[in-house]
Structure formats: structure tokens, C-alpha cells
Write a structure and sequence with these properties.
By secondary structure, the protein is mainly α. It contains 20 helices and five strands. Helix 13 packs across helix 14.
């Protein structure tokens, strides 16, 4: 406890770090306040009485938007259009040669891709805003249902998404951590107090040892968070030796570095892709009249059912392999090492090195995909065992992995600021992490 207090004091002593943290908190506060500003011309009481608590895809979007989606806020669409645009641009960078060339142009190419991402975000928002109003804001909840209401609502939703995108970029530039990720994280965390209170109240009403059950639930949640941290942080280090090179009176290379291959290199993308597909049978079952949906669609649309979760887990494993294969290129890594005079001890440079890296990735991706699938389906089992549906979302899935990943990334950035000024960090392994981060990529030359 004393070391934690000293660390907080050290953070306060560093003016730049203190300013960045305060800027981040200020920007996030603006975002949260904006999420409670309702679209003009919408009656929220009527809206809530008709829609209730959103579920399915709408419920997932509402979690990411911090409740703004169900409130018909000016930030109702949140940052999701930008996320969709980023995913599209990432896939374009893998498939379209022109975008691949931009990715290799360094800073100038990155700026061009960011600009295209912003334009695509605007286009996606313009397409999504009318659909949101038509499906999530019933006619009974609209005080006016004329053309001006539609124009103003679409314009405000577009402006809200652009403003959130701007906030995210400002947090990245002026604050600490990745701004877009922090905005998503704060939206998810905003739902945690309400979900916990609902679970607490429901357990209190249970006369059969409700508090004991709640305590067990919290212990299990803590254990799942630990497993998620291991999954996010897990790496397999491949040693790389660089040949010695003498230039003048200086010696370059001759030291051993490491290539850290992540156990879960795909992140949360496999879950997002699999969820998008699994929402399809839910949508078809919703459009079908009572009893007319086929048995397969009914089984797959049951969120807590066996077949839904089995297919969901298999798809996550498949997408993990797919996304890892398209994001990590062993041939390029082998070529870069060969060009810089590096080699893996005991492995020939060139194709043998690429095959070696590919084999290692295949071996570590399998357990990583299994753990990812397990974490993704835990909320469904928690719901079936009686946990409140909103609270069950925090037992795994996209929400938990995003929370863990963003918190760890932000802590590591704070850690680096402290270590640069010779202070002890927030994490016990701070100095080791600082050393390993310096070895996270293969350097061009080593002094």
C-alpha cells in the first residue's frame, strides 16, 4: 500500500504525466456527459417504456456506447462507425495493393489511411443514422415526425460520432493511452455499477444464501480476469542473433534479441467476426412468426443454448487462425531478419526461418484460440446459472477482453513515463517489462 501511495506521488511530481492524465479524465468526462444529452424531439419515457432494455446486437452496441444507444443520445451511435471503418481499412490493407503500398510509406502513408478512415466513418454514420432512428426510436417516442426531425436527428448523430472520433484522437495526442480504446472502455465500465447493483439486489431477495452466492460469483469473476490477463500478455519469445559488424571504432550487432509472438495475436477480432455471424440466426428468428422458424435457426438463436455456443466457439477458433494468418507474415519477418544480418540460432535464414516461425505460430495459436473461445462463451453459461444478464457480460467475451487489454496498455504507458524518470512503476514487474519492451521488435542495428 505504501509503495502504491509513493507511486501516485511520483505520478503527481511529473508535470507532463500529470497533465496527460488530467486531460484524459477531462475528455472522458465530456464524453460521459454528452451520452446523457437526448436527441431533440425524442420522449425518453415513452422510448424506454416501448423498447425496454436492448438485447442481442442492440444490447452489445449499447454496452459499447455506455447506454447512449438505448437513451437515443446525441452519442447514440458512439464510436462504432469508426471501429467499422477501421476494420474495413485494415482488411483493405491486406487485400488491395494500393493500400498495402500506403502502409509501407511510413508516417505519410499512415496519415493517408487515417484520412480515408475518417471519410469512411462519415459515410457509414450517414447510412446507419436513419436506420437507427427507424428501428430504435419508434414513432410514438417522436414528438415530431416530419422531415425536419429526420434531417436534424441524422445531422446530430453524425456530428456526435465525428466529435467522439475527435475526442479519441485528442486523448491519444494530449492524454495517456489510446483514445478510441479508452472511450470504448469507459462506455463498458459505465454499465458495471448498474449491473452489479441489480445482481446484488437480486441476491439479497434470494433467501437461500444470496450473499454467499454473490461472493462466489465475484471470486469466479476475479479468476476469469486473471486468465484474461494471461491470455492478453502471453508471448513466446524467439531468440534472434545478429552478426557483428565493425564500422570505424564502433561495433554493431553481436547481441541476442527476441521476437515476441503473442499467444493471442488476433485480439478480440475473432469474437467480433463470430458474433456478427451468430447474430444472423437471431435476426431471422426475430423476423419469423411464432413457431414458424426452423429448428436449426431456433437452436442457433438461443444465446444460452448448447448448439449456439458450440458453433460460436468453433467459429472463434477458425477466425483466430484466419486473422493470425493474415496479420502475421512469417516470410516478411524472415526477409527482414536476413536483410539486417539476423538469424535464429540453429535455423537457416530464408525459407527455413519462415517455416520455423510459422510452425511456432501454429502451435501457440491453438491454445490461444481455445482460451479465447472459452472466455467468449462464459457469459452464456453464467446467464444460464442465474447471473443477471447485464452482469454476466463482464464474465467474458468482447467486453472483458477490451477492458483487460486497454487497462494493461494504459498502465504500461504510465509505467514507461515513470521508468524514463527513474521512478518505480505501478506494476511490480515494471522494470522487467521496460526491458522486454525495448526488445519487442527486431532492431536495424544494435550498438
Amino acid at each position: 500500500m505504501k509503495s502504491l501511495i509513493n507511486t501516485i506521488k511520483n505520478i503527481y511530481k511529473i508535470e507532463e504525466l500529470r497533465t496527460r492524465i488530467l486531460n484524459t479524465l477531462g475528455f472522458l468526462l465530456i464524453y460521459r456527459l454528452g451520452s446523457f444529452v437526448i436527441l431533440p424531439g425524442v420522449d425518453t419515457e415513452v422510448l424506454h417504456s416501448i423498447n425496454g432494455d436492448p438485447s442481442g446486437l442492440a444490447g452489445l452496441i449499447n454496452i459499447f456506447a455506455g447506454g447512449a444507444f438505448s437513451r437515443a443520445s446525441i452519442f447514440a451511435l458512439g464510436i462504432m462507425p469508426y471501429i467499422s471503418a477501421s476494420i474495413v481499412m485494415q482488411l483493405m490493407g491486406m487485400a488491395v495493393p494500393q493500400f498495402q503500398k500506403m502502409q509501407k510509406e511510413g508516417e505519410s502513408g499512415r496519415k493517408k489511411i487515417n484520412q480515408y478512415t475518417r471519410f469512411l466513418t462519415v459515410l457509414i454514420t450517414i447510412l446507419q443514422a436513419p436506420g437507427y432512428i427507424a428501428t430504435q426510436v419508434p414513432a410514438q417516442a417522436r414528438l415530431h415526425n416530419d422531415t425536419m426531425f429526420w434531417i436534424s436527428a441524422v445531422t446530430i448523430l453524425l456530428a456526435g460520432t465525428i466529435f467522439i472520433m475527435w475526442l479519441g484522437e485528442k486523448i491519444t495526442d494530449k492524454g495517456i493511452g489510446n483514445g478510441i480504446s479508452l472511450i470504448i472502455m469507459i462506455g463498458i465500465i459505465a454499465n458495471l455499477p448498474v449491473a452489479f447493483v441489480q445482481e446484488f439486489v437480486s441476491r439479497l431477495e434470494n433467501s437461500g444464501g444470496g450473499l454467499v452466492i454473490l461472493l462466489v460469483e465475484l471470486v469466479i469473476l476475479f479468476a476469469i480476469i486473471l486468465v484474461s490477463i494471461l491470455l492478453v500478455q502471453g508471448t513466446r519469445k524467439i531468440p534472434v542473433q545478429f552478426a557483428k559488424k565493425v564500422v570505424g571504432n564502433k561495433q554493431y550487432g553481436g547481441v541476442r534479441q527476441y521476437i515476441p509472438l503473442k499467444v493471442n495475436a488476433a485480439g478480440v477480432m475473432p469474437i467480433i467476426f463470430a458474433q456478427a455471424i451468430m447474430f444472423l440466426p437471431m435476426t431471422l428468428a426475430g423476423f419469423s412468426s411464432s413457431g414458424s422458424a426452423s429448428g436449426i435457426i431456433t437452436a442457433l438463436s438461443d444465446y444460452t443454448g448448447f448448439w449456439h455456443n458450440l458453433v460460436f466457439a468453433i467459429m472463434i477458433i477458425a477466425f483466430t487462425y484466419f486473422y493470425t494468418a493474415i496479420t502475421i507474415n512469417p516470410n516478411q519477418m524472415a526477409d527482414d531478419m536476413k536483410r539486417n544480418g539476423g538469424f535464429i540460432p540453429g535455423v537457416k535464414p530464408g525459407k527455413s526461418t519462415a517455416d520455423f516461425i510459422d510452425t511456432i505460430m501454429s502451435r501457440i495459436t491453438f491454445p490461444g484460440s481455445l482460451f479465447l473461445a472459452m472466455i467468449a462463451i462464459i457469459p452464456a453459461f453464467a446467464t444460464r446459472l442465474g447471473v443477471n444478464a447485464q452482469f454476466a457480460h463482464f464474465y467474458g467475451g468482447t467486453s472483458l477482453l477490451i477492458l483487460v487489454g486497454v487497462v494493461l496498455d494504459t498502465l504500461q504507458q504510465i509505467e514507461s513515463h515513470l521508468l524514463m524518470r527513474h521512478y518505480d512503476g505501478l506494476m511490480k514487474t515494471g522494470r522487467l517489462m521496460g526491458r522486454s519492451s525495448n526488445q519487442s521488435a527486431v532492431p536495424m542495428v544494435t550498438n
